[in-house]
Amino acid sequence: MGRNIEIKARCPNPGAIEQIIQKMNLPFGGILRQTDTFYQTPRGRLKLRETDNESMLIPYLRKNQKGPGSSDYVLLPVEEPMLTHRILEAMFGVRSVVEKKRRIWFYENVRIHLDDVEDLGSFIELEGVVNEKNPGRPTLEKVELLMELFGIVEKDLVMNAYVDLMETGND
């Protein structure tokens, strides 16, 4: 199972963040168009993520909180997304669908996502991958450093997942 230390924040000026990223000369990971179909689950979240070139089933556990928090997840490659969707829809029911364009950069073990989310707007996510090589405390410190460099303040932080925001509109 994977673990991240992550934050999500509203991003009123993605261009300013991109300028900082360019000055830092961070490696660019590309642009993805993602469709995340969330299914009804009694605990945690379950989504089928589809991009142009791959599909993944991602079950994950994450508390809704503002500021850096941990998320436990598994990335399961899916070879037949349509069939998988039909089975999951029949078993659990569809909760919601989130569509976004994601631009990705890397700062060591931290992924920087600038997301344009349909019907919600622009967001920044910082996801620090925790593992033996990158323990929790140093990863948290990197996330906090990036928050400071990007000017992410308390009022910008979002405690809920995009799926929750789609349903409630509340941060």
Describe this structure in words.
There is one protein chain. The protein is of the alpha+beta class and 171 residues long. It has a single domain (2-168), classed as Hypothetical Protein Pfu-838710-001. The protein has 4 helices and 9 strands; from the N terminus they run E-H-E-E-E-E-E-H-E-E-E-H-H. The longest helix has 14 residues, at 136-149. The model has no long low-confidence stretch (mean pLDDT 94).
Please name the defining characteristics of this protein.
globular; 4 helices; Hypothetical Protein Pfu-838710-001; single chain; 171 residues; eight-stranded antiparallel β-barrel; alpha+beta; 26% helix
Which residues sit in consecutive blocks of at least 5 with pLDDT less than 50? none
What value does the average pLDDT take? 94
Largest sheet: 8 strands, antiparallel, barrel
As for the number of domains, it is 1
Radius of gyration: 16 Å
With helices defined by DSSP (H or I, 4 residues minimum), what is the helix count? 4
* Largest sheet strand order: 1-5-4-3-2-7-8-9
The CATH topology is given as: Hypothetical Protein Pfu-838710-001
Number of strands: 9
Helix and strand composition category = alpha+beta
Percent strand: 35-45%
Helical coverage, percent range: 25-40%
CATH architecture: Beta Barrel
Q: What distance lies between the first and last C-alpha atoms, to the nearest angstrom?
A: 27 Å
- SSE order, as H and E? EHEEEEEHEEEHH
Shape: globular
